[in-house]
């Protein structure tokens, strides 16, 4: 092609070495013939076996125990706070809400909160919108507090 000619679509060619014809195995001794890259004799030469096949031995996926039970997608997971932690966060007692506990860094937001009965308290708490275990309820009420669930 001369320097002053315009390049045409029909003049385009792939770069040298870019197009390589695929290897046709088993088509004569000169081109991957005879064993066709499968080696000599045996089961994998004669036919293919699936991945994980162990030659008739009980395979790993059958030897392992099955997964038991299920996890309910509707289970409510509570953020827990003990009475001892409440006594630290609210030394004077008072009203305790889930939002306050999130603001003070005791629990994460977006989950319901439950107070458990580990620890002792002498100050009165008023729990609002927070669940409490039976032991926590008795300790809070013994100290003069109350629980308003809602």
From TrEMBL:
Q: Which InterPro entries match?
A: Ribosomal_uL15 (IPR030878), Ribosomal_uL15/eL18 (IPR021131), Ribosomal_uL15/eL18_sf (IPR036227), Ribosomal_uL15_bac-type (IPR005749)
Q: Which GO terms describe its cellular component?
A: cytosolic large ribosomal subunit
Q: Name one GO biological process term.
A: translation
Record-level Gene Ontology MF annotations: rRNA binding; structural constituent of ribosome
- The keyword rRNA-binding is assigned to this record: yes
Q: Which UniProt keywords are listed?
A: Ribonucleoprotein, Ribosomal protein, RNA-binding, rRNA-binding
Positions of the UniProt region annotated as Disordered: 1-55
What residue stretches are annotated with the Large ribosomal subunit protein uL15/eL18 domain? Answer: 80-148
Q: Which NCBIfam families match?
A: rplO_bact
Q: What does this protein do?
A: Binds to the 23S rRNA.
> Which protein family is named in the record?
Belongs to the universal ribosomal protein uL15 family.
Subunit field text = Part of the 50S ribosomal subunit.
Name this polypeptide is given: Large ribosomal subunit protein uL15
- State which gene encodes it: rplO
């Amino acid at each position: 092609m001369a320097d002053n000619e315009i390049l045409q679509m029909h003049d385009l060619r792939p770069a040298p070495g870019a197009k390589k014809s695929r290897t046709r195995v088993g088509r004569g001794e000169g081109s991957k013939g005879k064993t066709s890259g499968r080696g000599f004799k045996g089961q994998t030469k004669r036919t293919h076996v699936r991945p994980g096949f162990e030659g008739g031995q009980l395979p790993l996926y059958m030897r392992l125990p099955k997964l038991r039970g299920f996890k309910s997608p509707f289970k409510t997971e509570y953020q827990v706070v003990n009475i001892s932690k409440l006594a630290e966060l609210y030394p004077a007692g008072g009203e305790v809400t889930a939002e306050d506990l999130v603001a003070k860094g005791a629990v994460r937001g977006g989950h319901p909160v439950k107070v458990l009965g580990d620890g002792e308290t002498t100050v009165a708490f008023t729990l609002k919108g927070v669940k409490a275990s039976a032991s926590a309820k008795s300790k809070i009420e013994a100290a003069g507090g109350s629980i308003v669930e809602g």
